[in-house]
Design a protein that fits this description.
Layout (H helix, E strand, L loop, with lengths): L1 H5 L2 H4 L10 H33 L12 H11 L5 E4 L2 H4 L4 H11 L17 E3 L7 H12 L8 E4 L10 H4 L2 H4 L4 H12 L5 H9 L2 H8 L4 H6 L6 H12 L12 H8 L1 H24 L6 H16 L3 E6 L8 H7 L6 E3 L7 H4 L12 H25 L15
Parallel strand pairs: 1-2, 1-3, 3-4, 4-5
């Protein structure tokens, strides 16, 4: 009897007449139907997004990108007034005062400081295009976008950046700041930078993978129409900051005492002193090493610096690379100059030679100068620039600039 129960139709999946049930077959058919419909819907969505992108293309630099948009809007309205542009991270944005730089450089060349907006032979009139948290790839992309239609009087472009590994932090991937520049061409720049690095293949895949999400958002953006017709509003704080840096040719001083980095700096002076001592030792070791053996710079960094140099020279200007007084341990720009990849470098990352820039009273935090320190740094930069690069323009209108071997051109 047990055998009969185990083999009865009700337990074998069949019907009393011996025919099998069609439930599983129907379920499979329904799932296949849903899968086909979903795929068709997704493909239709992709096509619609692509068509919409052609009908309503995003501007190269949209106005609703925090920091970048307001800076670019002001620059575009005044760009032919400028003969010099500064690009970089917060170490440019918060540390170089264009008006002070212009006046000090003019005085150092023995001329009268310029009046705002006037362009004459030998004029030095600069704009700070520094943006907080810029890194290697997005800095190069912004430079190319801005110089695609350069100012007609442009003579010098200063560039600062930490040449990082090329990772795009996931929290940034969903922001307009990351999405706007991840088109096909710029994502290819990221791929070239990452896959020509010294990282292992698994790490390269992870680094490049961090760019896929903003790339996807850029090309499949259902909010494109609304972003174009009704741009997102900046917060009151963002509008206040934009108004202040616009009034100061792109510069914004660090003053906020409640800044967590500021508080951490104040609460750990010994840690800062140790970091400065470590940097001093590392700089001495680097200088000794490059005197006895060839400097080294990975292929991806070499290619990026060559691309930056070509972009600037194609705009009719001379590139001048800057190393601000940071605690960053890498010496990529110095190595690049030793290898002949870049010609012009103004470096201030040396606590022994520039102790005033590392004095605690001139720092906002471990990574940045306060307003007093920024003025000191700007003055040093302007004097060295005038000595090594501006003299030819002060005396004549020749656009030729020869690389300098002076102390400031390090």
């Amino acid at each position: 009897m047990l055998g009969n129960v185990l083999h009865s139709p009700s337990h074998s999946g069949g019907r009393p007449d011996g025919r099998p049930f069609k439930r599983s077959r129907k379920r499979s058919s329904v799932l296949t139907k849903y899968a086909k419909q979903s795929l068709a819907g997704f493909l239709a969505f992709v096509v619609a997004a692509a068509v919409l992108a052609q009908i309503i293309p995003s501007p190269t630099i949209p106005s609703n990108i925090v920091f970048v948009g307001p800076k670019n809007d002001y620059y575009q309205a005044h760009k032919d007034e400028y003969t010099a542009l500064f690009f970089g991270s917060s170490r440019v944005y918060n540390q170089i005062l264009p008006d002070a730089f212009d006046d000090i450089a003019w005085q150092a060349t023995g001329q009268t400081p310029h009046s705002s907006g006037s362009i004459t032979s030998g004029s030095i009139n600069s704009y700070n295009f520094g943006v907080p948290a810029m890194r290697a790839i997005d800095s190069a992309v912004l430079l190319e976008d801005v110089l695609a239609n350069p100012p007609k009087n442009l003579k010098w472009v200063f560039f600062e950046s930490i040449l990082d590994k090329g990772y795009e932090p996931i929290p940034n991937a969903r922001t307009y700041r990351a999405i706007y520049w991840h088109n096909w061409e710029n994502t290819a720049i990221a791929a070239q930078y990452i896959f020509n690095s010294d990282e292992s293949l698994p790490k390269k895949l992870v680094l490049f993978g961090s760019h896929l999400l903003p790339f996807l958002y850029h090309h499949i953006n259902v909010g494109r129409l609304f972003n174009q017709v009704l741009p997102s509003e900046f917060s009151e704080e963002e509008r206040t900051v934009a108004a202040e840096f616009t009034a100061q040719e792109g510069f914004y001083p660090l003053r906020e005492q409640s800044d967590p980095k500021r508080q951490a700096f104040l609460q750990n002076p010994a840690g800062y002193e140790d970091a400065v001592a470590t940097l001093t030792a590392a700089q001495a070791q680097f200088e000794t090493a490059v005197e006895t053996e060839d400097a080294y710079l990975s292929t991806n960094k070499q290619l990026l610096l060559e691309r930056i140099t070509q972009t600037i020279r194609a705009a009719g200007a001379e590139p001048i690379f800057i190393e601000p007084p940071s605690l960053h341990p890498e010496n990529d720009f110095q190595a690049a100059q030793k290898l002949g990849i870049i010609d012009n470098l103004l470096s201030y990352k040396d606590p022994q030679r520039f102790p005033q820039l590392y004095a605690p009273q001139n720092r906002h935090d471990a990574d940045h100068l306060n307003e007093t320190g920024s003025r000191e740094f700007t003055a040093l930069l302007a004097h060295d620039f005038a000595q090594d690069f501006a003299q030819g323009f002060a005396s004549n209108t020749s656009p030729e600039i020869a690389p300098s071997d002076s102390e400031a051109n390090r």
